[in-house]
Design brief:
The chain folds into two domains: about 110 residues, uronate isomerase, domain 2, chain A, CATH 1.10.2020.10; about 325 residues, Metal-dependent hydrolases (TIM Barrel, Alpha-Beta Barrel). Helices cover about 50% and strands about 10% of the residues. It contains 21 helices and eleven strands. The strands form four sheets. Strands 6-7-10-11 form a four-stranded parallel beta sheet, covered by helices on one side. Strands 1-2-4 form a three-stranded parallel beta sheet. α12 crosses α13, α14 packs across α15 and α15 runs parallel beside α17. The two termini are about 45 Å apart. About 45% of the residues are buried.
Amino acid sequence: MLTELQSILADRYLAPDPAQRRIARQLYDEVAGLPIVSPHGHVDPRLLADPAATFGTPTELFLIPDHYILRMLYSQGIPMESLGVRPSGGRSSNNAVEADHRRAWQLFADNVHLFRATPSGIWLADGLRGVFGIEESLSAKNAGAVYDELSEKLGRPEFRPRALFERFGVETLCTTDDASDPLDSHRAIRASGWAGDVRPTFRPDGVVNLLAAGWRDRLDALAASVGREIESTAALIAALEERRAFFRSMGAVATDHGVETAYTESLGEAEADAIFMRALRGRATPDDARRFCGHMLIELARMSAEDGLVMQLHVGSLRNHNAAIFEHFGADKGADIPVAAEFTRNLKPLLDRFGNDSRLRLILFTLDETTYGRELAPLAGHYPAVRIGPPWWFFDSLNGMARYFDAVIETAGLYNTAGFNDDTRAFCSIPVRHDLWRRAASSWLAGLVVRDIVGLSDAADMAREMAYGLAKRTYRLG
């Protein structure tokens, strides 16, 4: 029975056709043990800065930081407060935390059926089983026992963040950090002598988007980080260039930009300054913000061409759609909703200047799947600067990955894609997400083999690239 169970688990997520599944298993076995390159994500670097750091409670590890889980539970009318999420600026007493988190875990387990057939359900089950050795599926009946077992294991040295980093086989992990961040955690990691490769990623959205919440505070923080006032577009650009140099000195290989649209526009200095001055007076309009962000994306592309930082552009999320949740609990609570995106015309001003410049590496991500075959694949299949990022956010799922492979690789070719990144805040989902990608890729490649589109040796080479090589080269990690 155990052998049969292991066989079933070993073949999970692979194609059901016997011939395709046999080849998929062969391809997967060759890549399953490759190191994990995680070049884009949102793990808190503080977890890795202190050798003695822990993940806290099971609720803090699995539930509170995972907006996929929060959004599903909230969609069923379960209040955020009951899930351990505190209002913005709110705090619980230390005595209340354990009780609150245990109740939240029970509530989560009471409703775990909501995650059947979803990526979150896969990540949870595989995380509990693969990372913590908990074979029994989480349920309302065993919630307390599972919580206790997790709590006991999370207190052990072998389940601390650094230990799991090494156990997972993570070769490189990149965090995402505000432009003014002093990167103290990254300094601490370096100073500790630990061999783990953890790198920052430069994200200037808070000062580039003039209507971002807290924009003026973030601008002031950026000014403080460079030691001078920022009262013009030129001063903002100079400050960003200075901070990018600092991030590079700390090991950064990439920048990240989250925008609702891919709109770009080259403004004259006087026009850009006029918009910036209106923003300083609190009078920027939505059109001002759109045009200024479009202008700054071109400036940021220029910087990337000059300093070599890979430029990631995440397009198509209308952030904080639920105003009441944002006002009460803040961002990243599962209320971001995809919108239609357009790249071909919107990106043309940027690509006219830098699309043919091989120094620039521009990775495009979208939440609008209709753009994969129509726009992103043709763009990446032509412009030397452009690569297509992996399926992102709502689409980093088994079916989303299959749709992605079908939509982009025929037109762009495999080698104009960027491999995989897990884009996660949930640390223990890192190996699970990479494993799912490797299985999905192996299964898709096996379909090419059985149809004589590629040979088995070529498919094996493609599987290694998809699991490891593409991400490493795309992000210039050696």
